[in-house]
Design goal:
about 65% helix; two-stranded parallel ribbon; elongated; mainly alpha
């Protein structure tokens, strides 16, 4: 806890990197300390409904119907991101309250709906900031690569080793995302031929 507290304190104190304005994350409370505002990931919220395991056929049908309505509502959020509109915004806000009604007739489903209702503002952050994503799957998949590497090789032995590992993993993943052969890129840089330069490739895509 002390180490985490110092890390958060340093993050807000340092000026080398810009602070995150809106952070899309799961509902872990520590994420509230990072961005000026926390938006919640819809995919993480949806997973909670997948964990519900009803045994009664009637309850199974309730969950199935709710999940169908859930993803239909999600499609409206995607439509709003593409074309923000005041009328659609109002429909989404009212539609949220109509969809997430705890009195479903199935206790476990109602219990989870209550949790989603508490996070309404965070889940609907996109209505104020249409440019943000509705989920953080891409960042989670990127982090998972580091986790798989740790599972295979445990950890590095020195600070220099950590820096080298991070640098090469960043290069390889950036190459992969941009359709560049990582081996050819590293060989090109070592030979000082400078025919391929990742920063230029990435900058060109951003522009």
């Amino acid at each position: 806890w002390v180490c985490d507290s110092f890390a958060f304190g340093y993050y807000h104190w340092q000026e080398d990197y810009p602070k995150v304005n809106i952070l899309i994350s799961d509902n872990a409370p520590e994420y509230k300390l990072i961005g000026n505002r926390q938006g919640l990931c819809w995919i993480h919220d949806a997973r909670n409904y997948n964990k519900i395991t009803p045994f009664v056929k009637y309850h199974q049908q309730l969950v199935e119907n709710f999940q169908y309505s859930y993803w239909e509502f999600y499609k409206k959020l995607l439509d709003y991101k593409d074309k923000p509109d005041k009328e659609l915004k109002h429909k989404i806000e009212t539609g949220f309250d109509k969809l997430f009604i705890p009195n479903t007739g199935y206790f476990d489903l109602g219990k989870q709906i209550k949790k989603t209702l508490k996070n309404k503002n965070e889940l609907l952050t996109v209505l104020e900031y249409p440019q943000i994503p509705l989920h953080n799957n891409l960042s989670e998949l990127a982090a998972r690569i580091q986790v798989r590497k740790r599972d295979i090789s445990l950890h590095t032995m020195t600070k220099c080793g950590t820096k080298l590992q991070d640098a090469f993993m960043s290069i390889i993943q950036t190459c992969r995302l941009n359709g560049v052969n990582a081996y050819a890129y590293i060989r090109n840089r070592v030979a000082e031929q400078n025919e391929i330069y990742l920063p230029n490739i990435v900058a060109a895509k951003i522009i």
